[in-house]
Amino acid sequence: MVRLTVDLIAKSKKHLKKKRGLSFPEYLKTLTHLHFSSKNIDDIGDLSMCRSLTVLYLYDNQITCICNLGFASNLTHLYMQNNNIPRIDNLYSLQKLSKLYLGGNRITVVEGLEELHELKELHLENQRLAPGEKLHFDPRTLHSLADCLHTLNINNNNVDDISALSVLKELQHFSAADNKLLSIEELENVFGFWPQLLLLDLSGNPVCKKPKYRDRLITLCTGLEVLDEKDINDLTRQFLINWKASKEKKRNNRMLLRPLIAYPLTNDLNTGQDPLPGHI
Question: Which of 102, 146, 191, 231 sits in a 20 to 30 Å window from 177, CA-based?
Fold first, then answer.
């Protein structure tokens, strides 16, 4: 077991070189970046002396709980991918957090981010889920991120429905590759709420095999620059937009020119005359 504490920092040769004559407590107060990736760390201890911390690297460890970070009110970047974290928790104090990396853990619900109103990037790809499990989204968290989140990565999480994500109206980069998305109509409904979308990756989903999949998304997301890791040039986009407009115009013209169906009229009830024999 390895616990991340100030004592562990004190033993790090990398940090000893950076002290530059400061006492260790003084050095901890000035520390802005902390690198402890791939150190077999399974727990976070008391780091409250590191009050200037802005970037924390803890990826590729054995951490099972996000804890003891309440002191880090200046933290902007948190890298905790490839650990054993089952739940997003104890982040409410990190109100300056801009980028959060939690890919490769055991998270089943996207939750606990209601206070992070500065969060721009959220990376949750490749969760190690139980058979038949998929990644879920807490509506409270989604609504709290609606005005700030620009990048969302949920690759390879057995996701088959993203309708709840439509509230994320500021999204610019969305990656949901290698999931189970099937309905292109559902995608169109969601993407219609994302006018800022620039990069979209849905490769490896069943929906990619639908007829005109790429054409339909390019004409819908008019600002899209990259789809499934392939650039979209302006000429292709304009051609598809013109083609769609021409198709809709032809359809509307056919509706206008459709002949009226003539129905036989009788005056039996309007003239007051007796009906002819056989018309009763």
Answer: 146
